[in-house]
Amino acid sequence: MVDEPHAVVFSTHITSDLERIADYVSVLDSGRLVAHTTRDELLEGFRSVRGASGTLDAPTRSLVRGLREHAHGWDGLMATEDTVGLSAGVVVEAPSLEDVVVSYAQREPSHV
């Protein structure tokens, strides 16, 4: 791994391993490549979002990947650029690699 012209392919469902050692991440969903980029670009491209039920309007709903609604509100993943202008009641945080990989392959927002 020190020798730049060489690569190691590491296939796993254990995302904590990837977070520690991967330079590039490829995400497969049902055999289809849905993402391939550097680990850092993948993490910077998304934000974990959550809010109370009243903060989930139709435009926001259409942008959330892996939307989960529950008794206390909702949560999911959004493209970083889509989080600008969210209502004040929505919490926006950096996601873990597991958050991104699990949500990325789920239902894509309608604008994609």
In words, what does this structure look like?
With 112 residues, this protein is of the alpha+beta class. Helices cover 22% and strands 31% of the residues. The protein is built from four helices and six strands; from the N terminus they run αββαβαβββα. A hairpin with a 2-residue loop joins β4 and β5. The radius of gyration is 16 Å and the shape is elongated. The mean pLDDT is 85.
Give a quick set of tags describing it.
single chain; alpha+beta; two-stranded antiparallel sheet; 22% helix; elongated
User: Radius of gyration in whole Å, from Cα?
Assistant: 16 Å
* End-to-end gap: 35 Å
What order do the SSEs take from the amino end to the carboxyl end, as H and E?
HEEHEHEEEH
- Beta content: 25-35%
Low-confidence stretches: none
Give the neighbour order of strands across the main sheet.
Answer: 4-5-3-6
| Average pLDDT over all residues | 85
Sheet bearing the most strands, described?
4 strands, antiparallel
**Count of helical regions:** 4
Helix content: 10-25%
Oligomer: single chain
Q: What is the total tally of β strands?
A: 6
Structural class: alpha+beta
* Cα shape: elongated
Quick overview of this protein structure:
With 112 residues, the protein is α+β, with helices and mostly antiparallel strands. The protein is 22% helix and 31% strand.
Q: What's the helix and strand layout?
A:
Blueprint: H1 15-21, E1 24-29, E2 32-38, H2 39-44, E3 46-51, H3 58-61, E4 65-70, E5 73-79, E6 91-93, H4 97-104
Antiparallel strand pairs: 1-2, 3-5, 3-6, 4-5
